[in-house]
Amino acid sequence: MKNVTPMTEQYQHFVEEMQGEFWGDIYEKGQLALKKFFEADSERQRDGYLGWGWYQRSEEPERDYRNGYYERDYVTRFGTLRIRIARTRGKAFLPRGLKQFQRRADEVALLIREAFLRGISTRQVGQVLAVITGEVVSAQTVSQVTQSLDGLVKQFQQARLKDEWKYLFLDGVSLRVRRPGGRKRVQLLVAYGVRADGSRQLLSFLRSQGESQSGWEGLLNDLERRGLKGERLALIVTDGCPGLAAAIETVYPRARHQRCWVHKMRNILGAVRRRDQAEVKTALQAIYQAESLRHAQAAFQQFQRRWRHHYPPLVKRLERDLPELLTFFSFPKPLWKTLRTTNAIERRFVEVRRRTRPMVCFVNIHSVDRIIFSIFNRFNQHWQNRTLKIFTQAA
């Protein structure tokens, strides 16, 4: 048996180049042939749709007429084709053969939006879609597709709200955005509502420079304007931000206020010596895990006696905030664990951070709105037929 001489590297490159040129030529000719076919077919179908030839007119006012052409991109097996389509004055005509391509283009647009919303950059989205379309989709095209989300964001932020929310959780999350002066942090203020039957919804979000009273008043006034008047609002749970507390007094003064124990614990433990943290933590847990309001007040008195000489300012602040930290005891006992923290909304922020981590920094503020709307909309859709049973049982 004769030995087969191995293919040299130079010859291998030659073969690969020839194959590339051959299939590239076939690919380009296929694109051109398909383009010409559908352009000619659109004219033929338009003439059949109208029912008369060129330069003919009808006395019937309802009859449609030719109205030139328009160009549109369609995604096919041969890549993205720009096809010149014959149209009518009434704009109700679309060639039958292009309807499938139109659906295909819509599917690719959906993929572009989903990839963007999962934190992939516009340039990377185009490269990923090359697997489907046969060619790289430009970053500009990806940006144009994602801009279609702006209308949905506006609808979400302007949707009417029924005045049926009993519990309102308010908190903020910080995100980084590119600005003309460099990267800056933008605070996202968020409202999460729960009805008496346990159904829930992320109601609104607002970009702000910080958690000032004016910023929170902007969010709360928007909720009130959209229909959440607060007639059934029994409790508002917050992270303890002073600006937010002041805004609640302005917009929803009749609602009771609960400060988050998780945030309070974090602030207190950060102010004590490391050697005291374990004991202080146990003493604080004894307050909010008490069997009743009376027992919680007694646990605070023990805490006060133990630590007032070691941390006087800290104990005074806790005493000042105690009424709003113990508000949850006025509600059904099964709800105590849920109502004493903002964990219900903090868990949503975990998803926000996970989805936005690949982006490192938002390109602009519009990207913030699109991403946050997508995340919140998914939660709301998932919750449509799911209720928090603990609220239903306690109702």
Uncertain stretches? none
Q: Major beta sheet, specifics?
A: 5 strands, mixed
Number of helices: 15
Structural domain tally: 2
Query: How would the global form be characterised?
Result: elongated
Specify the oligomeric state: single chain
Helicity range = 40-55%
CA radius of gyration is 31 Å
pLDDT averaged over residues: 79
What is the first-to-last residue Cα distance?
88 Å
**What is the total tally of β strands?**
7
User: Beta-strand percentage?
Assistant: 15-25%
User: Which strand order spans the largest sheet, edge to edge or round the barrel?
Assistant: 5-4-3-6-7
| SSE class | alpha/beta
Q: Helices and strands, in N-to-C order?
A: HEEHHHHEEEHEHEHHHHHHHH
Written overview of the protein:
54% of the residues lie in helices and 17% in strands. The protein has helices spanning 9-50, 96-117, 122-133, 139-146, 149-158, 213-226, 242-251, 261-269, 274-288, 293-307, 312-325, 336-339, 343-356, 365-383, 389-394; strands spanning 66-76, 79-88, 165-179, 182-195, 200-208, 235-238, 256-259. With 395 residues, it is an alpha/beta fold. It has a five-stranded mixed β-sheet, sandwiched between helices. α3 packs across α4.
Topology:
Layout: H1 9-50, E1 66-76, E2 79-88, H2 96-117, H3 122-133, H4 139-146, H5 149-158, E3 165-179, E4 182-195, E5 200-208, H6 213-226, E6 235-238, H7 242-251, E7 256-259, H8 261-269, H9 274-288, H10 293-307, H11 312-325, H12 336-339, H13 343-356, H14 365-383, H15 389-394
Parallel strand pairs: 3-6, 6-7
Antiparallel strand pairs: 1-2, 3-4, 4-5
